[in-house]
Amino acid sequence: MKAISWVSGKGGTGKTTIVGNIGYILSKSGFKTILVDADHGLSCLTRLFKINARVDLIDLLKSNYVDLKDIVYPTGIENLFIIPSKDRIKVSEVRGVSRLKGMFNSLDSFDYILIDAPAGLGETIVNLMAVTGYYVIVAQPTPWSIDAALKLKLIGDKIGAKPEGFILNDIEGKISMFKEAVPKFERLLGVRCIGLIPHDKKVKLSSIKLEIIAGNSTNRAVREFYKIASAIAGLKFEPPKRGLLPFFG
Fold it and tell me: 55, 22 in Cβ contact below 8 A?
């Protein structure tokens, strides 16, 4: 079992879309995978999979009367499950590191646990990175997003968490220009680059429609999703020949 926190120092990087699609690819490749929506202020991952949660992650952490089995929901995709978040107007930090550790240890029947962390640099992010021990940084090619990524790396170093890699998402213009700049980014962050995802209207549209787009092999962004999943698993995954998988919940 490997648990990985997916983090971004600022909002709007496309992190949730990436996590959902990577979870889909891993599950379709035979790995039993569970997604954890730890962004309980927005609950975007829960919305993506159209889960109507009665109890969620925060209920488990705050109550002695909620069992882990009560918050694990099937997504309707084989091998893919989710721990959702309910909409909460008042957002509190995810505390209780010992309970978080206990929860992740109890999910040892899964091959991968992918945690969609909230954006920012707050206590929740630090706790999740500390408990999982691994993290992926999702950033956009802007100075402020790269600056936030650097701060996340410094936090990771301080708490002893290991970076799995960083992703530059929503790249406009020629990807070749950014490929040339990758070594500079890697030296700056001290983290390998595992994905360069171009700006793509189909990906944006899939998020709006609450669809998993990872079945579309003609899409360069989707090929990057498969490349990222391959880097995470240490295996070579190839997208199917064609087709878009709509997820209807």
Answer: no
Measured between alpha carbons, how far is 23 from 32 in angstroms, rounded to an integer? 9
Mean pLDDT of the chain: 88
pLDDT of 72 higher than 70: yes
Please tell me the CATH code under which domain 2-233 is placed. Answer: 3.40.50.300
Local confidence band at 46 (pLDDT 50, 70, 90 cut-offs): very high
Strands 80-83 and 112-116: unpaired
The widest CA-to-CA distance across the chain, in whole angstroms, is 54
Q: Are strands 2-7 and 80-83 parallel, antiparallel or unpaired?
A: unpaired
Quote the CA–CA distance of 220 and 224 in Å, as a whole number: 6
Task: For residues 94 and 123, give the distance between their C-alpha atoms in angstroms, rounded to a whole number.
Answer: 7
DSSP state, 192?
-
